[in-house]
Amino acid sequence: MNVAEFEALRVFTSEYLQFPPFVAAFNEIERLVQLYRQTGIAQHLLVTGESGSGKTTLCKAMVERYPHASLPERDVIPVLFVPMPSTATIASVAEAMLARLGDPAPTTGTTSAKTARVARLARACAVELILFDEANHIQDRGQLPTQYMVGDWLKSLMDDVQVPTVLLGLPRVENLLRVNEQLRRRFMLRLHLEFGKDPDHTIETQCLRLFTSLTPSLPVPFNKGGTTWSELAYRLHAATDGRVSYVKSLLIGAIRQVFEQDLQEITLAVLEAAFTSAIWPQGVGALNPFCANFDFRRLDRAGEPFQPSDEVVRPSSRRRAHAA
Ligand SMILES: Nc1ncnc2c1ncn2[C@@H]1O[C@H](COP(=O)(O)OP(=O)(O)OP(=O)(O)O)[C@@H](O)[C@H]1O
Ligand SMILES: [Mg+2]
């Protein structure tokens, strides 16, 4: 890899893309903060999205929007960003929050002492918004009693701290709210980070827009050749499922080839190779959306890259199935 390639990648990955579901979620969270600032009312929001749809990036954008500040007498943390630990026990979540709040000994004390410290420090640091990313980890713990207990703890903490709280996770997080009615009642506002129904634009067209918003940042021009825009839109949607991370991976794969092969433009043949190298090694021939003999269907069957996350058998559920 050479310096020019590094620079091309830096330029390409440096900006937040303002695609509609991302902007809608950002604006809604912003509204929660403003509502809280002006009235003290804490509303909460659930944001779901498949892997690579931009949930963690959304959290980072909010942290940048309301940055931390170190005042002489205290730290101010307007946005408390907490990735749920994979164990997702009450103690581990409390510890993760304490660490982010600057507690010098997050693992010290009983669970209730840690919880009390979280609430106290959140107030002391003037937290105005809590973002719990990877909320599906609570649900992935499997057993309903554990899910219920963590959910219940979360609910009490939210009532205690009383600031807007956003839960972000894979679509299966909705199941967590299904088992806990009190938590469900607090997360009536919900958004899905996915291209939705738009009367003026198909999902494929929205995906094409995301792609074309990125092409000006490429080091060489994109040339679609004789392909029509609507066909390209279909192929792009099939190749990326409309998820920002896959659109970017595809183009990062293309940039790699530009430098390796000293190309003057990015064509469909380049995207075909990039799909195989950067998205799905088995994606060749009829399974490659940029190949002439592509099957023209979604790649969402078992073992394909866009199999819905709810259908992927997780190790814990496999164990339960065996135990049953
Ligand atoms: N608005 C955006 N602008 C630019 N790049 C983005 C944006 N949203 C997401 N991305 C890119 O997509 C990649 C995946 O995004 P992100 O990690 O936020 O997805 P996620 O929904 O949190 O996925 P997971 O469920 O796997 O954690 C990021 O590395 C980032 O480069
Ligand atoms: Mg994430």
Could you characterize the architecture of this molecule?
It is built from 14 helices and seven strands. By secondary structure, the protein is of the alpha/beta class. It folds into two domains: 3-15 and 199-309, no CATH class; 20-192, Rossmann fold. The strands form two sheets. Strands 4-5-6-1-7 form a five-stranded parallel β-sheet, with helices on both faces. Strands 2-3 form a two-stranded antiparallel sheet. A hairpin with a 4-residue loop joins strand 2 and strand 3. Helix 4 (90-100) runs parallel beside helix 5, helix 10 (203-214) packs across helix 11 and helix 12 packs across helix 13. The longest helix has 20 residues, at 20-39. The termini are far apart. The relative contact order is 0.13. Residues 13, 16-17, 22, 49, 51-57, 170, 244-245, 248 line the site of adenosine-5'-triphosphate. Adenosine-5'-triphosphate binds next to helix 3 and helix 12. InterPro entries: AAA+_ATPase (IPR003593), P-loop_NTPase (IPR027417), Sigma_54_int_dom_ATP-bd_1 (IPR025662), TniB (IPR008868). Residues 41-195 form the AAA+ ATPase domain. It comes from Zoogloea oryzae.
**Biggest sheet architecture:** 5 strands, parallel
The strand line-up of the biggest sheet is: 4-5-6-1-7
How many DSSP-defined strands? 7
Rg (C-alpha, Å): 22 Å
**Percent of residues in beta strands?**
5-15%
Tell me the count of domains.
2
What is the CATH fold-level name of the largest domain?
A: Rossmann fold
Shape: elongated
So, the CATH homologous superfamily of the largest domain? P-loop containing nucleotide triphosphate hydrolases
Mean pLDDT across all residues, rounded?
91
Q: Label the CATH architecture of the largest domain.
A: 3-Layer(aba) Sandwich
The helix-and-strand class reads alpha/beta
Q: Regions with pLDDT < 50 over 5+ consecutive residues?
A: 317-324
- Helix tally equals 14
Bound molecules: adenosine-5'-triphosphate, magnesium ion
CATH class of the largest domain: Alpha Beta
Report how far apart the termini are. Answer: 52 Å
**Order of helical and strand elements:** HHEHEEEHHEHHEHHEHHHHH
Helix fraction bin: 40-55%
Protein name: AAA+ ATPase domain-containing protein
InterPro entries: AAA+_ATPase, P-loop_NTPase, Sigma_54_int_dom_ATP-bd_1, TniB
Domain AAA+ ATPase: 41-195
Pfam families: TniB
